[in-house]
Amino acid sequence: MNYPDIVLTAIATALYFAGLVVVGLEIAFRKEGLGRVWQAIVACGLGVEAGALIARTSASGEVPLTDLFEYNLVFTWAIVLVFFMLFRNRLPRLASLTLLVVVVFLLGTSFLYYTDPKGVSMPALRSYWLYIHVSLAALGETFFAIGFVSSIIYLVKSAKPDDVLDHLTYRAISLGFPLFTAGALAAGAMWAKKAWGAYWSWDPKEVLSLVVWLVYAAYLHARLVRGLRGKVLAVISIVGFLLTIFTIFGTLIFGGLHSYS
Amino acid sequence: MISLAVLSLFGAIIPQHGEDTFYIEEYGHILGSLVVRLGLDHIFRTDYYGSLLVLLCVMVFACALKRLPQVIRLSRHPGPISRVEALKKQPCQAELTLDVDCEEARLHIVDILKRRFYRVAYQVEGERCYLQAAKNAFSHYGSFILHVSFILLLAGGIAIARFGRQVYENVRVGDSFDFVAAGDETVTVTVDDFVVETDDEGKLYDYVCEAEITGGLIGRRWYRIRPNHPFVYGGTEVYLESYDQDADNPCGFVVTVYDSTGDVVVPHVFVPTDEFVELGEANVTLRAYAGIVPTIREIREGGSVVTHLIHEDPGEALGDTSSLRFVLIHAVPSLVVTLKVVQEPGQILIIVGLIMLSAGTLVSLYLSHRKIWFIVEAIPEGRSRVFLGGRSNKHLESFAAEFEAIRGTLDELS
């Protein structure tokens, strides 16, 4: 564990945790001045995490998308970045708090799966499909995370149909769903064919990804075709993201063809 | 979809295709028996899972067909709106007075809209002109494409399951096997070598099976079959699966056994697997020996133990082994390259289905059908008044911004 990536990841986790505490204080004591403080802390965390990604890439000589530690690093970085760029000002403070809880949890657990960046990499992962498949899936799941946060806030705060949070959840999922479809399912199937000789092998991760896809497809179908709004959809969005997390960590429990990730 | 999701979850959580006893040991008698009886141990091959998939596709197909006329109608170019009141009912509307005449205003509007990739049509009636513009009408077909993609994927899956073929070929270096490609052409694959490639730092880089391919139309070619780089010819793909001990036809360590007087009793091949294999004088066919009594010995090469695990039948093969001395003569590698030969006739359906699945979600969720109507009427002093209104079937915020930009550009003429 003498590589800078793990040190920088630890610092980023600490910064996000500090940001989480400050947001909590801002909400608890209604001190608006703290808003800039936690935003600055989280921005620093984002920068340090980017440093961790660069350090890892530099040490391994490969894009950091090959195992669970690297995936969590990229995933959490994307969540914070997308949230800050697109959704920070549209969602209440409670959303920032919830999002940082998710990020700290994911980054915190990633230390359990830390791998030496100079370790043996699998020849099967040497493919341009890796970048397409994993990065698009991660980006799709990033938007699902935003949808998860806004759904929780929606249920906690307003729970009125046609609320702005309800609409934001839909926007986030409608952005994430095509990316997840193209990345996790379509590109995944194409790569699976190239690497394993079969588009679909009923591997646990494949099946769980299909389940996630079905849940979000049900969300969009219910909203766009049935015209549903409100609590039911928020619950589906929350279930969808919890299943997404289960899918990410599922290989640890079920193994299978994706067990290296 | 929910039923499929729930059943798929069972399939992901419960290990598939195990022995019945495994489930009873793992989950207890009642639950284990239930898993086996309900087919949860092979859920993706059960009739009810297949039926649900077929049902989903039938529903998707019926839904797609039912909505097709509506989709066609909605995606048609809009007709003109001739009443100002009707324009003002649109979600976005504006009114402008321009310092140009009706004809020039129309030309400007057409120009602005075309720059934004709108399809524009217009009618002139006396002192008035009606314009209607639309773009992304194709977005209505997004869900239709998505629905068709499900059907293609299922059809492809059925075609592969029904007509596809997967064969594993265990080949030693120097050996070969044949497959029949499209057009009944026999192709021979000979494994020339298996190489583990490393980079400059000695780090594993790639596994390579160097193969010679010969056949009618191919002639003679050399190909490096690697992970992610199968050999593809005539509807057949050959994948590098593994490089491992040959399970079907093992060979192993050649050991010469001496008795207490130093005479050679019999040369043997011992395999560090669970099977006893006897070698005759040379490379005769190797076979498993039934009813063996396993004993464990050490085989030493120099000072180091090569293997501990030897199974033999002292009674039948060697008699009393206590006085015997085992000497390792040489190790015969029992490794084989396993190549997976795949023929999947439904592939094109899968590929088109996957492309349509991605395109369908993109089109249906990212593209919005935007329509804008204009009424331009001439007013005194060579000027014109423009009424405009528009709507979008989704992404209203983004459409409102575009509408405002169009209005702003047009306003420069006032």
Give structural notes:
The complex is a heterodimer of chains A (261) and B (414). Chain A is mainly α. Chain A is built from 8 helices and no strands. In chain A, helix 1 (4-29) packs antiparallel against helix 2. The longest helix of chain A is centred in the C-terminal third of the chain and has 33 residues, at 164-196. Chain B starts with a helix and ends with a helix. Chain B folds into 4 domains: 2-72 and 152-161, no CATH class; 77-136 and 368-411, TATA-Binding Protein; 163-246 and 337-359, Tick-borne Encephalitis virus Glycoprotein, domain 1, CATH 2.60.98; 248-333, no CATH class. By secondary structure, chain B is of the alpha+beta class. Chain B has helices at 2-13, 20-27, 29-37, 47-74, 84-87, 102-115, 142-163, 314-318, 347-366, 396-411, and strands spanning 92-98, 119-125, 128-135, 165-171, 176-181, 185-198, 204-215, 219-225, 231-233, 236-245, 253-258, 264-270, 299-301, 304-307, 325-331, 335-343, 370-379, 383-392. In chain B, 33% of the residues lie in helices and 33% in strands. Classes of the chains: A mainly alpha (261), B alpha+beta (414). The A-B interface holds A 118, 120-124, 126-127, 129, 174-175, 177-178, 181-182, 185-186, 189-191, 193-200, 202, 204, 207-208, 210-211, 214-215, 217-218, 220-221, 224, 250, 254 and B 1-2, 4-5, 8-9, 11-13, 15-16, 44, 143, 157, 160, 166, 203-207, 226-228, 230, 237, 239, 340, 342, 347, 350-351, 354-355, 357-358, 361-362, 365-366.
